[in-house]
Specification:
Blueprint (H helix, E strand, L loop, with lengths): L1 H4 L32 H29 L1 H13 L2 H14 L5 H12 L3 H19 L26 H31 L4 H17 L4 H10 L6 H17 L4 H12 L6 H12 L8 H21 L4 H15 L6 H5 L2 H10 L2 H16 L6 H10 L10 H13 L4 H15 L4 H17 L12 H9 L22 H19 L43 H5 L5 H11 L12 H15 L1
Helix pairs in contact: 2-3, 2-7, 3-4, 4-5, 4-6, 5-6, 5-7, 6-7, 6-8, 7-8, 8-9, 8-10, 9-11, 10-12, 11-12, 11-13, 12-14, 13-14, 14-17, 16-17, 17-18, 17-19, 19-21, 20-21, 21-25
InterPro entries: ARM-type_fold, CCAAT-binding_factor, CEBPZ/Mak21-like
Family: Belongs to the CBF/MAK21 family.
Protein name: CBF domain-containing protein
Length: 606
């Protein structure tokens, strides 16, 4: 009907200006209620398709009249040109007249959808640029024809209503463009799953650029990228992790959506540990802010759920546990209100602490310190675990900085002096068999601690030997040891009742001296109820609990050996501590003279 009434010399209803985009004059009218009359809807859609096809023909005829040479050349290229020339011609036509070039865009997408990796590789970038720069609107999604208010269209009066015809053409073009773009996204997803690493990385990068630039098909593109975290090619999975971080930085409002999608991936059935590792590694690097505690709380829930799942399935892999604990430490700093969620996992954390490698144990200790600081306070159990685990530090590890940071915070907040002295003794003993950097860090740590508490460093000059001597004279029998006496036959049954009564009285007196007074102790918080036994006078480095190693009964003889250390800085630091100067000198200004003299000598030789 429309084709018969439109003359061959008519002009197209939709005219495109090079200074504008098609969506600047596009129609945004839509409805949420679908039409109930499917026959009427199909008729209107078919009529819109005819109008769009006719308008494309009119546009080609008008272009031929204006520039016959160029039009003939483009027609020749499109029919008999090489593949690269055809792509170039389609690109030119699409940029000039996007509404009338939807068939060329569909042809390019079909080339990508084919199972020809080389041809797809050459067209992929071109289509990406066309969709971003020419076809997709920046501030909204494409509207399908089914969402248009077709009830307002009157087919009987359509022949005379040119504005309504133009509106139908734009509706149909936008609907077809949405279909073509969906096919293009599906082709990118297929290419990203190919065994060719370079093609997969390129497809994921283009998917990222489309997702950042335009909102159309964002859910499919986001799922595409997140699913590639489980790609068997580790290089591709790592690259996708970086792409997702770029997405969260450039589109911060999408961080919650991305976190939820990654959560679905983590809890998917039959998911590999490698995929979970990449997912947690990505989440641990997301930008967090104090003004948005909701995201931190969401991440913390993901970490706790994965933590429970790993413990339940007995998949205690050190690599994923280390990353998981590191991520939990970071998220917990921004979600202080979720302490109760982690308190339930304290026993499991201590179990991991004693069974994992040192790096994983250190992350566990950092998490426990944060957790206990914000809840009930640092427990004796924590200090005992820290005291034991520092013995497991291996040579050449890269966790010294984190270890000393944790030690400084934990020991500075400890109010029991004898326990801090025990840590000082153990660190000095480790410094004798570690490298120079560890020894220097230990001495600087001790110097910082003794600035406010000088009594922590018991040297030969500051030790009270009279007190030690008096305690040695009054040394009593330890309550955990039994004492045996030789049998004396001369007094075997004399005054048995009196002897038995006196024994009970002495035992009651001994028990009353040993047991803590007050309420019965529950849990691991003993620091306010412990009665330190002052009868022992010797230091025992093998005791597991630093409260009972009696480090305050010895002097720091290790400093004498460190003062003779081969490294000059360590020797100076130790000598200053022995001389009770209170600080380790860290002034290296004198090195400038040495460096200047060294450089002058080199120049003289040259």
């Amino acid at each position: 009907m429309v084709e018969q009434m439109a003359p061959a010399t008519a002009e197209p209803l939709v005219r495109h200006s090079p200074e504008t985009k098609w969506y600047d004059y596009g129609d945004l009218e839509c409805t949420e209620q679908l039409t109930s009359d499917l026959n009427c809807f199909n008729s209107i859609e078919k009529q819109a398709e005819i109008l769009l096809k006719r308008d494309c023909e009119l546009q080609w005829q008008m272009q031929s009249k204006k520039n016959m040479t160029e039009t003939a050349w483009l027609s020749t290229i499109l029919t008999r040109g090489t593949a690269r020339d055809k792509v170039t011609a389609m690109q030119i036509l699409t940029q000039r007249h996007p509404v009338h070039s939807i068939s060329y865009v569909a042809a390019l997408v079909n080339n990508v959808a084919k199972k020809n990796a080389r041809e797809a590789f050459s067209v992929l970038g071109l289509l990406k640029d066309l969709f971003i720069n020419e076809l997709l609107p920046p501030g909204r999604k494409l509207i399908p024809f089914s969402a248009r208010p077709v009830e307002k269209i009157n087919l009987s009066s359509l022949d005379k209503d040119f504005n309504m015809k133009r509106k139908l053409i734009l509706w149909k073009f936008e609907s077809d463009l949405k279909t073509v773009y969906e096919k293009f996204v599906a082709a990118i997803e297929r290419l990203a799953g190919e065994n060719i690493e370079k093609l997969g990385i390129l497809s994921c990068r283009y998917a990222l650029e489309l997702l950042i630039a335009r909102a159309e098909q964002e859910q499919k593109l986001l799922s595409l990228l997140i699913n590639k975290l489980g790609h068997p090619n580790k290089t591709l999975a790592t690259r996708v992790c970086g792409y997702l971080l770029q997405l969260t930085r450039k589109q911060p409002l999408m961080r919650h959506i991305v976190a939820k999608e990654v959560e679905r991936l983590i809890y998917r059935k039959n998911i590999s540990c490698c995929t979970q590792l990449h997912a947690v590694s990505f989440l641990s690097q997301m930008n967090l802010h104090g003004c948005d505690p909701t995201l931190a709380s969401t991440l913390l829930n993901i970490y706790i759920g994965l933590f429970r799942m790993l413990v339940f399935n007995k998949k205690m892999d050190d690599k994923i546990l280390n990353v998981l604990l590191l991520a939990t430490n970071r998220a917990f700093s921004y979600a202080k209100g979720d302490v109760d969620k982690l308190i339930k996992e304290v026993d499991t954390l201590y179990k991991i602490l004693h069974q994992s490698s040192f790096s994983t144990a250190l992350q566990t200790l950092k998490l426990l310190y944060q957790l206990l600081t914000t809840s009930e306070g640092i427990s004796d159990r924590f200090y005992a675990a820290l005291y034991r685990r520092i013995m497991d530090l291996q040579h050449g590890t890269n966790v010294d900085r984190q270890l000393f940071s944790l030690l400084y915070r934990a020991l500075s907040s400890d109010t029991i002096e004898c326990r801090v002295i025990a840590f000082v003794k153990r660190l000095l003993q480790l410094s004798l068999c570690r490298n120079a950097s560890f020894a220097a860090a230990t001495l600087i740590l001790i110097s910082r601690l003794t600035e406010s508490r000088p009594s922590l460093l018991i040297t030969k000059k500051t030790a009270d030997f009279t007190k030690f001597s008096n305690e040695a004279k009054t040394e009593a029998v330890d309550d955990d040891e039994e004492v045996y006496y030789d049998y004396d036959s001369s007094t075997e049954t004399v005054n048995a009742e009196t002897s038995l009564t006196s024994t009970f009285e002495s035992n009651d007196k001994l028990i009353s001296d040993i047991k803590p007074c007050g309420k019965k102790v529950f849990g691991w918080m003993h620091k306010n109820n412990i009665v330190v036994r002052s009868t022992a006078t010797t230091y025992d480095p093998m005791v597991r609990n630093p409260l009972f190693c009696r480090a305050d009964k010895s002097i720091v003889t290790e400093l004498i050996l460190l003062s003779m250390h081969y490294h000059p800085s360590v020797a100076v630091f130790a000598s200053n501590l022995l001389n009770v100067s209170g600080k380790c000198k860290t002034d290296f200004q004198k090195c400038k003279t040495f460096i200047r003299a060294y450089l002058s000598a080199k120049q003289t030789l040259l």
